[in-house]
Specification:
Oligomer: homodimer
Strand content of chain A: 25-35%
Radius of gyration of chain A: 34 Å
Number of strands of chain A: 38
Chain lengths: 637, 637
Amino acid sequence: MKRKIYLKTTSFKDALHKWASLYSSLPQTETEIIRVEDSLNRVTAEAVFARISSPFYHASAMDGFAVRFEETLGASETTPVRLKLGSQAVPVNTGNPLPEGFNAVVMVEDVHQEEDFIIINAPLTPYQNVRAVGEDIVKTELILPENHIIRPVDIAALLAGGHTEVKVRGKPLVGVIPTGDEVVEPGTALKPGNIIEFNSRMIASMTELWGGRCVREDITPDDKGLIREKLLSMLKRCDFVVVIAGSSVGTKDHAPELLGELGEVLVHGVNIKPGKPLLLANIEGKPVMGLPGYPVSAYLTFEFFARPLIYHLQGLRAPEYQTIKARLSRPVYSILGQTEFLRVKVGRVSKGFVASPVGRGAGAIMTLQRADGIVVIPEGSEGIGQSVEVDVRLLRSKEEIENTIVCIGSHDNCLDLMANFLKKRHPLYSLSSAHLGSMGGIVAIKQSQAHIAGTHLLDEATGQYNIPYIKRLLKGISLVLINLVYRMQGFIVKKGNPKNIQSVDDLLRDDITFINRQAGSGTRVLTDKLLRERDIDPSTIKGYNREEYTHMGVASAVASGVADVGMGILTAAVSLGLDFVPIAKERYDIIIPLEHLERPMIQALLDIIRNDKEFHSAILEAGGYDISDIGKVVYEQ
Amino acid sequence: MKRKIYLKTTSFKDALHKWASLYSSLPQTETEIIRVEDSLNRVTAEAVFARISSPFYHASAMDGFAVRFEETLGASETTPVRLKLGSQAVPVNTGNPLPEGFNAVVMVEDVHQEEDFIIINAPLTPYQNVRAVGEDIVKTELILPENHIIRPVDIAALLAGGHTEVKVRGKPLVGVIPTGDEVVEPGTALKPGNIIEFNSRMIASMTELWGGRCVREDITPDDKGLIREKLLSMLKRCDFVVVIAGSSVGTKDHAPELLGELGEVLVHGVNIKPGKPLLLANIEGKPVMGLPGYPVSAYLTFEFFARPLIYHLQGLRAPEYQTIKARLSRPVYSILGQTEFLRVKVGRVSKGFVASPVGRGAGAIMTLQRADGIVVIPEGSEGIGQSVEVDVRLLRSKEEIENTIVCIGSHDNCLDLMANFLKKRHPLYSLSSAHLGSMGGIVAIKQSQAHIAGTHLLDEATGQYNIPYIKRLLKGISLVLINLVYRMQGFIVKKGNPKNIQSVDDLLRDDITFINRQAGSGTRVLTDKLLRERDIDPSTIKGYNREEYTHMGVASAVASGVADVGMGILTAAVSLGLDFVPIAKERYDIIIPLEHLERPMIQALLDIIRNDKEFHSAILEAGGYDISDIGKVVYEQ
């Protein structure tokens, strides 16, 4: 097995530069003529000048009577002027053309009518109450310049200026070729090793947002000849082509060699994380991207490299990213010489925004889906310290972030339900949970990084939940503690409990692999308490050092055979079809500092917790919960 | 002719409130199930939970060999471990499933291969280099809550979570009925009195931007029975219905009476400007709007009243408007008790943004099309003073505004060409011109309200253009004066010059009506100089007091018969097919303060002025220009 290597990795900046050198000389897409009413968000391919004036006739601006201003001169309260209907005054409605020979309009409310005459008490000026020809648009004036994105008001102006059609840039056409022997269409019955092909759909919708459109080939196996054939056919039809996956240096990665044979490889391997195995090429003047297969890598590299190109092809500059300033919640280390795109959750809890880094895996699409923004760590940096102010490129709007309740702390499946019911009842609000364990929640409240925290910490000395910890660790912070649920903790085991695990002592058995929760989680505190009570040395338990961060993570580890047993809540076992050995009933509460309690979004959440029958039913349906005290204040300080 | 009146006008706030009371009780639109790949920007109608885990099998995260971690324990440089290929080590590529019984992956670069064995020098931990089941998504976890707008990354997450279809809210369906005897389809051969029906296309595209869609009836004449018939049919099919025009109190305004007969009129007449003749009704629980026919009124009332409704029907809250703070360039007066929506141009010339009010007519769509934002003058205010800071709701992005050259001063048709070429060559930049005359331009430069100013002021004493004015009025400001063109000023007269106008003295003739330019414009300065030279009293010239603000305005007045003659440039006469009597050749220059000269957008413009052959040709084609000194520095201080 001979290893291929990157020809020579390129810095992010140089890669962008080489790519821009290629595409910036490309002409814009071919123009097309479309109906003005279909032109929303399209880009003008030439300047549009008014064909007609608007109004194109002298129009009455009021309901009233057309008159000759000369005949109204001298009119006053004491010397009213009488004008004969028909010859001297003609009734007109707003928008009516001024009859030939008339040059002003007197408003209906300013005249007194007497048989065949109108009587007026004030003189008029020439063209008073008349919308003269060209008042809005003068024939030949510029309505829209070239390279202008057409808005609703532009559609109005184009039609008013006498246009029914408009010449616009064609939508850039992106050819997409998903490749890979293991890749299957969504909806296929899955076999181990299969990967659902969603990258092409993701980039098609990104392309759509930027004004382009994608044509997609069927999934092509890792066969150089086949990929070549499809690539050549796409190059004929499309403005640029993207080959998904196969851009790295594995045995089945044919793209680098293939693109080299067909044209010039500009870049193979970029010093970015994620996204290193990016391939950029020029085939007969057309840009070709070899996109990494990992979805976060695919997303980010397509964003950085395809976006400016698709805008360029339309005669536009890609708009700047929306950014905000935020302080980093914890230090982050990065590799010198590599540009890293750090996914972060952003919250506004007290003054200013706080950005909390989330998972960094290139394969974890949910880390990107749940992220609020991206922090760029430049290649010259080894990392960023805690509380350092950074620029965050937003993935959600600032408004959404400001209306998001930041919940940090222990994980419970009810949080997913709470998040959903909050959004369902109050579309403006969101709930964002980070599962850092009960202690993590308490620390977050102390550091003003969360609005609320879920906690279930058992105090060994008193047997009390949460309150002793709060008194000790959140001294001086005014808060209320609200009960959410009582829930059952226990051993999550395989369906049918094949290894017959019944008590803590079974964890010591040779044939048992345990899966643990992270230090600081309430579940870990419970586990360690149980071990201490029985004088069990944790190091004698196989798997004790492997930690998961959520109940579902533990359940998933059991379901997939990574472990035989883990401590967790009943709901997690139920939802993955596993069995459960109850160990202890515990109280799960929510800490809310008083400074946040009166915020409308927190009140909205409390109202759901306390009064939403549908929410209550959903919890009970999930199984394993007692909601008899839901929403009750357990403690205040 | 009996006058109808508004039943009772309503304040803006009360109107919004009554409307919200109606629609906020409406259910969301009926749901539909669509393919995930077609779901971009649609709104989830229910929470979506993961159907499968991702990965759903233990996947190798690296190219390398699957091994059992137990068999690697103790491996080191000095005590390497040999594993037999096939039984103890199996080659895997990234993404491959871990073969049954294996639980870690060693990277290809960390092994040495020797015949049928691999040799490793370090032990592995359980599931090292393995993407375990559920590492990205755990089956049953919440992927998207209800009421979530689907983004590209959500499409990826939905597909990865095992969904091929998603339940979304139907697009709100808006029924639109344009009415009016005088209203005609775009493209119809126009007769005086005709109005092109573009309001329905404008609001259809607004609706599209907000996630809804419109169905449109053909134009319906002012016939109450016909309108009733179409309204009833639309009400059956649509979520809400809009009748365009006929909402006021004219004789042909049937909507108020009709809506009162069919349901309940909530509001008729709102104390807003523009937009007063708005009609809001409830017909059998469905919202119906009677929209004013004037396009700016139609736009604004549809924006304020339809937007929140269309969002509500999708389970969303309308996003907040983007706003910026700006200082008002001049005082604005408003009527107490009336909420006014002031259209403004916004520029960033020095520190901070400056908002300059533009035309306030409800019929002038170009004032809205050219506006950068809206300033709301609340009903309790009689106006806003100069330099007062106001909130501007943006109609263009802040980025676009910051990349816009603000040009204030004398009007010349070349400015339209300049605006187009700037956008054509540099899509990032725009040129925005306000035609306030040469003196207006000089004042704007003095007050830092413009980056550049066009001027053609003839100094009577010296016969010199511009420089004496600049020395006197812009003392202390470092600037350059650049020539743009020499151009011909003269009398714009009707085709064939039927009244045989040849000299200034002809203006005194009884049968001649003049059209003037505003005070402070270079053309007015020229006119007044010519009159003084001949000792003519301006008050003896018929029409001297009627002022236009642009050459095209003058030409248009002549073309449409408002006047027989006006002073202006040859180009304006040519473009409306008029005749021209040359009077004087003049120099048209551009003032650029040094503080702006080095800005990239100004340099880009200068490059076009000086070097763009296509731009030069376009000027010459327009006719009447001499560009022999184009771009040359005429003066510096």
